[in-house]
Amino acid sequence: MVSGAGAGYSLYNTAPAAATSFNTGCAKRAMADVCAVADPNAGVPVYDSTAYLGSSGWLVFGGTSVSAPIIGSVYALSGNTPGYANALPYAHTTALFDVTSGSNGRCPTLQWCTARTGWDGPSGLGTPNGVSAF
After folding, report:
1. Phi, psi for residue 103 in degrees, rounded to 5
2. pLDDT value at position 95?
3. How far apart are the C-alpha atoms of 92 and 119, rounded to whole Å?
């Protein structure tokens, strides 16, 4: 389930050629190709021994500050990083866990804000199932 993720499209960047067969509802490049932990309430536990704003010990984080390093790590572990152009996940959708429920608010196009089978705005093509989609 996805909740609270951003969605939309670029006004300037064209979509990768590999994405053109997917119905993104975007005239240009869609924001999400893939996703990872976005919800800070169900995020990743992190131990911080240095107090920050009075908090230390085990804390839970989510959102971009967790998902970006996760996705970056998956790309790095795949070994397919030279010249990478975000096209590989579109050719390997079976190597992703498709997120099919949840939403992130209201948008002019239902698929930009509501998870569904296949590509959708909140989760892109889904979450990594290993590194073979990357």
Report:
1. -155, 170
2. 94
3. 13
> Which residues have C-beta within 8 Å of that of residue 63, sequence separation ≥ 6?
4, 37, 38, 39, 40, 43
For residue 74, the surrounding DSSP H or E stretch is helix 64-78
| Residue entry with tokens 């609270």 | 4
User: Who's near 103: CB < 8 A, 6+ residues apart?
Assistant: 2, 3, 113, 114, 115, 122
| Percent helix, strand and coil across the chain, each to the nearest 5 | 25, 20, 55
- Per the document, the length of the chain is 134
Nearest to 35 by CA among 132, 128, 133: 128
**Consecutive 10-residue runs of the chain (134 residues): their mean pLDDT?**
66 78 76 82 86 89 87 89 74 93 79 86 91 91
| Phi, psi of 55, rounded to the nearest 5 degrees | -110, 140
